[in-house]
Structures are given as structure tokens and as C-alpha cells.
Design a protein that fits this description.
Blueprint (H helix, E strand, L loop, with lengths): L2 H27 L5 H20 L3 H18 L7 H23 L5 H18 L2 H4 L40 E9 L1 H5 L4 H9 L3 E7 L17 E8 L3 H6 L8 E7 L11 E2 L16 H24 L3 H23 L8 H28 L6 H24 E3 L1 H18 L2 E7 L4 E3 H22 L3 H6 L5 E11 L2 E8 L6 H10 L11 H5 L23 H10 L3 E7 L3 E9 L4 E9 L2 E6 L3 E5 L6 E4 L3 E6 L2 E7 H4 L13 E7 L3 E7 L1 E9 L3 H4 L6 E6 L5 E5 L1 H8 L10 H4 L1
Length: 742
Amino acid sequence: MDMNEIKEIFFQECEEQLAELESGLLKLNDGDRDPETVNAVFRAVHSIKGGAGAFGLEELVAFAHVFETTLDCVRSNKLEPNQDVLKVMLKSADVLADLVTCSRDGGSVEESRTRGLVKELEALANGEALPAAEAPKAAKPVAAAPAKPTDDSGFQPIPFTFDGFGEEENVVEQFTYEVTFKPTRELYSKGNEAALLLRDLSRFGEMGIACDMDQLPALENMDPEASYFGWKISITTPKSEEEVRAVFEFAEWDCELEVKPAEASEGEELPMIPVPFDLSALDDEPAEPTPQTETAATEEASANVVKAVNAAVEKKESAAAAAAAAAAATQNNAAAAASSAGQTIRVDLDRVDRLINLVGELVINQAMLSQSVIENDNNGVSSINMGLEELQQLTREIQDSVMAIRAQPVKPVFQRMSRIVREVADMVGKQIRLVTEGENTEVDKTVIDKIAEPLTHMIRNAVDHGIESPEKREAAGKDPEGTIKLSAKHRSGRILIELQDDGGGINRERVKQKAIDNDLISPDANLSDEEIDNLIFAPGFSTADKISDISGRGVGMDVVKRSIQALGGRISISSRPGLGSTFTMSLPLTLAVLDGMVVTVAGQTLVVPLTAIVETLQPEASAIHSFGANQRLISIRNSFCPLVDVGRILNFRTNQANPVDGVALLVESEGGGQRALMVDAIQGQRQVVIKSLEANYTHVPGIAAATILGDGRVALILDVDAVVGASRGQSLKPEMSLAAAG
């Protein structure tokens, strides 16, 4: 793996850490004071800083360091994470995300943003810090060499000499630190090596080291994946305490670590056994191994272990050292095995897309093959038929498994919205809190990517237009802090995303007057409340009095509606004056496949999504009732349901068909209730592969997409919501009907 690939993995992990950071800060902002939440937030920034340092991303490291320092004050209970503190930290998380993006894609973050937040973070850390924390971390200068302990302490310094430390300048101040280092099992399972950390530490100066083997059990009771050793180290170096800690940066969460100046030591005495081997053997970096050198290295490592055991035997510590050597060898083997057995893998999204496309083609070809066999096999019991049924089942399982790979929670999109709320609220001087629900609701990755933009505009619109100013809210008896609720849930094979605010609702009189001024409706138009609300989706419609950075920039709610419709979805709105508005988006879970009912309407083949169908029934003449001039109702279990002629709605025919001669599909649409769609006949139920009609032709009202049937013909997938809407008076444009489309 080259450096660019490693760097790309780092940035992918940064996305995960930033999401963890955002989630943790929002929990703290909601009053969560669980120490693990604070630790998770700290770890996220700490991990980003550590990785950025490895790649020399100095600007990112510098900001993350200040951020981490302030978070450490919260973690150590020196700083209370109140609303003012968290406001600064949420802004800092936004800047940290921007710095990561700039480090990956190029560019830079405005210096004024980073400089201002750095000052705020430092002020928080210094202003709330305890007196002890204000003292310099480094100890006072002491002698260049550590003093030897008494004979009964069991602690014997082992001198190390490395290049660069042979000659010391008198002008350099030296500090002595005592380091207690005890790895956990996780350190080895992640492929880290304690000896290499000790080697890196020894390069800082003259070091004495002893090994604590008190927890080492008998050989027969030893867990090969456990960690039993601990080390106590004394090091004299010109480095600061922070630089000493940085040696253990990548392993800090997988070990017990204490670093303190020598003068601050409490003088505790532990029964220590000197390390029976020389760490300087690890200082030479080996060349890239070949099979021969790997074998040689293994033999050399084994020889070193034998030497260590023999050395311990000579010191009358054969039992403990032998067990220690065996444990060390076993731990290394276990760590190597654990590091190679990852539970997850990262796969390029293009590869998954290609796999999904191939599976889609497999489904189509399987359907064509089945159709051909059925047409040439009358009895339907041949071995070929049986094999095809198994093939169909396997194809379905493969398709479901591949689609599950693409399914992802909407949490990343929802978390991005919290930043938009903060930024826009600050711009307009409002106090707004975002509440999210159903963040773990899963949907196809393609849908997630495409809902981010329309959702962003809706959030900005809710902050700018929906929520009132704090003064107006207080005058109306409301909490000066407004609330926007963003939720997601599954319903009938689709995902519903709701955006609700507790603002002033839609000013219908103003909306209607604006529509009249823009010649969208006539002055004498008699519109219902719902129809007035939907005027905001008209092209170019806006009630903004002046152009700002937030609204009035030529991008209106009509763009949002078109984006949702392009995904095969619908958007509806409900509003209550003085109480707020709710926008509801209904979207398919995937843009690749669907289960559908294949029907015939006026000689045309259509596919009705199975998730919209409640039941099918054969109408009887006694159940059909006329209503008004052209409306008909069908009686279903002592209730009446409007009957909709699909062929007439889509202009397949000019006259209404006789319901008794066809089949009724009882469907349920978003916002339209139940309707009985009348079709001529049902061909059967099939899983079909969705093909975009807009990408290959153009948008056709009443039609959501297209598919290829088993006989090779193209069939259109019905947009149930659009057809139901047309039956309620929202007629399709004649020039865009299927008849006009040819």
C-alpha cells in the first residue's frame, strides 16, 4: 500500500471521527454528562490530530491540539460543558471538519475563523483551569543522569546510547520524568508492539527501565492474548512532558499510562525485575523482507527469546522470565493474527454500483429465460422449470444481499443539518435547536447522497422563514428558542423524512397575494388551505422582502420538489398558523429494484409498486355508484372509495371503461388516502429493475420510471401518488401526457 492509499484511509477514518465528534457534542449539548460521551469526543479529536501529525498536516494538527487541550479540561472536570462552552466547541468541530476537507481536497480555511476559535478555546481552558494545572508541566532541571535507586528497590537503570544523544550541549536543559506503562490486551490485538514504543522513547535521552512481572501467572494458566507486563521507566531528556506522552499517542487508549516529573513522584516501590534484553536491538530498521529474510528474522527472534530466558536463569529468575518470554512470543503471534482478521472492509462505491448493475442485468436475463421456458413448456413440470425456480430464488437472495451492502443510515446527512442550523441561526440572530429522530433508519446510499441538497435548502428555509425571532416568540408566549425536528422512519417499503418547526406557520394571505402579484393564480381564485400552502412550490415563488445570503437567491422550493420527484418521491406540506409547519418527504428505499404488480391498461403494460397496493378485487355492478358528473365510487366492506380509471387519467383512452370488465387495485398514497385504481387485467407479480426515464428520455407525469420485462418489452412504472393526485383535481398537463409523448 503506497502513501496515497494510506492517506486516503486516514481521511475516511476522519469522516467517522468527525461524525463521532458531532454526535458526542450534540449529546453533551442536550445535557448528557456520561463520562464515556466526553471520552468519545476527546478520542475523536485526539485520533485526528495523531493521524494528521503522521502526514505533516501542520495546520490541522495545530488546531486539533488546542481543541484537544480544552476537551481534556472537560474530561478532567476542570471545565463545565455549559451551553457557552459547547457553542464554542460545536463551532470548533465545524472548523476541524473544514480543515480536514481542505487537507484532503486542497484550499484553506479563513485564518480569522481559526485564529478566533483558538483564542476562545485557550481562554476556556486557561480561565477554568485549576491552579495546579496552570503550573508548567515540565519539571525543574535536574542532573543529566538519573540517580540510581537503592539496592532493595529492585529498579536498576539500563543505559541506552543512540545516535544524536552521544554528545550533550550544556546549554540544553534536561528534565527527568518517571513513566509507568502497562499495555492492555487491546494494544496487542491492534498490532502495536510495546517494545517498539519503548525504543522510540529511549531515543529522547538516557533511560532506565524495569519490567513489572507481578501479574504473570504460571505457564499453564496463561492466556495467550492477555497482557501481563508493565514497565517503569526513568528518562532524562530535553523534551517536554507533552512530547514524552506523544510517543504513546496511538496506543494511549490501549494502555495504562502515567507520565510525571521525577520530583512529583510519591516514591512508591514496586517489586521490579530488570528487563532481560537490550532494546537497542530493535533500533535498526530492517529492509523490506523476502521469504528468506522472514525466515531468518523468525529464527533470530527465537534466538533472542532463548537468550533472554538464559539471561534470566543466570539471575535466578528463570521461572518468571521464561514465562515472560513465552508470553511475549505468544502475544506477538496473536497480535499478528488479530490484525489480519478484520471484521469490516472498505470498498470503493463504484465497485458496488457495478455489482448492482450486473445483478440487475442478471435479474432481467433470468426473467427472459423463465419467460422463454414457460412459452415452450406446457406442462410446467420439467427439470428445466425446477432449475429455473431455484435460479430465481438464488437471484433474489443475491440481489437482496447486494442491496443490503448499499443500505446506510441517514445519520451522516442529519448530522450535517445540525451545522447548517447553527450557522444560519447565527446569521439571522435566532436561537434554534435541532432535534433528530430515527437517525439509524437505513436507505440506499444513492438516495442518501441525493436528499442532502434539497434537505439543506429546506432547513435553511425553516430557519429563515419558519422560526420567528426571539422577540416575536416571547411576545407570542413561546420559548425564545425555536425547535426544528428532523425525523426518519420506514413505512410501506418507503422512507418518510419529516421536517417540522414550531414557528409561525405559513402566512396564507401573504402567500396568496404574492401568487396573485406573480400571475400564478387569478385574483378571484377560490383555493383551499392545502392548495395555498402548495403555492410555495411554484417556480420562482418567494415571500422574502429582500435578497440575503440565506434566501431570495433564485433557488426556491420548486427546486426542492423537482429534486424529490426525480428520486421517485413526493413532498407534502401541512401548516398551522402560529404553531408551525411540517414538510413530509416520501422516498423509495432504493433506486435499483422494486416488487411490482404487472397490469394491462388500454393495451399498455404498466407496473404498479407492490408497496402501494393494499388489496386487489373484482368489482361487481352492485358495488359501483355514480357521484357527480364523472365521479364513481366503489363499495368496499360498508365504506366507499373513489374509483380511478388509470387509462383515462393517463389519456390512454378518451372514455371511461366499465369497472365490471376490469380489476380494481386498492392503493394507499401519501396525503391522498385510499383510491381504487381500475386496470383491465393483472399479468402477475414480479421483481423489476428500475431504469430512469428522465435519464433516457424525459420526465413523464404519472410515470415514475421504466423497466424491462422478461419478454424484452419496456414497461412503465406507475407513479401512484401522481395518479391519485390527478384524480383529486390536480390534472396532468395534456402536452406531457403519454399520448403526447408517443
